[in-house]
Specification:
Layout (H helix, E strand, L loop, with lengths): L1 E2 L21 E2 L3 E4 L4 E5 L4 E4 L4 E4 L5 E5 L4 E5 L14 E5 L3 E6 L5 E5 L2 E7 L2 E4 L3 E3 L9 E4 L5 E6 L7 E5 L3 E5 L5 E5 L6
Length: 196
């Protein structure tokens, strides 16, 4: 039921914006009908429900837009300003569902990035901590120019430059330094003891 509205504003069960005498209250569901979509307040669900392709816009020019296309959910800054996400709480989190972390942003603290719920990168006051291997400039350990840093296995550090000459320079477990040829064989090894 509607209250605080002039009965003169009700015409064939329809109330238009120009007919409203003052604010009104409804104790049931309420539907706003657009050109092609609807927005509905569902009393039983305590929810204001936007249909696919309906938009909530903010700002004099509607610069901030929140919408759902049916396939994706979008938060857009469509003007010339910036989009800021802020918190006074403990962190901003991006998660997969309720059980898997993707990224955490901690005020005055770390940024944490995850792969399949396993933390791989964390910023610190001293720099960056990385859990796992690092590949810089290239797509694989062979066949591409790359710098690789390993946390396990024989090769702990390797610099590969096959686009110039297929040589590798690296440090293996035990602190030994080596240079290898395109055939994969070692040309020279400098052992941590000083022997060559």
């Amino acid at each position: 039921a509607l209250t605080q509205i002039s009965t003169d504003g009700i015409k064939n069960g329809t109330i238009t914006g120009s007919d409203l005498a003052t604010d009104f209250t409804t104790t049931g569901d309420f539907t706003f009908t657009g050109a092609t979509r609807v927005i509905r307040f569902d009393k039983s669900d305590d929810a204001l429900e936007f249909g696919d392709e309906m938009k909530a816009t903010f700002g004099n020019s509607g610069d901030l837009v929140i919408s759902h296309s049916g396939a994706a959910s979008l938060i857009q800054e469509t003007g010339v300003g910036s989009l800021h996400i802020t918190t006074n709480g403990t962190q901003i989190s991006i998660d997969k569902g309720a059980t898997e972390s993707m990224a955490n942003f901690i005020p005055d603290g770390a940024v944490e990035l995850f792969f399949d719920n396993s933390k791989k990168l964390e910023t610190t006051s001293a720099g960056v901590n990385i859990d796992g291997n690092v590949l810089i400039g290239g797509t694989s350990a062979t066949g591409s120019d790359s710098l690789e840093v390993f946390d396990s296995g024989n090769n702990q550090f390797r610099l590969t430059r096959p686009s110039v000459q297929n040589y590798q320079f690296g440090i293996v477990s035990g602190g030994h330094l080596y240079i290898s040829s395109s055939s994969g064989g070692e040309l020279v090894r400098f052992q941590s003891s000083g022997n060559v």
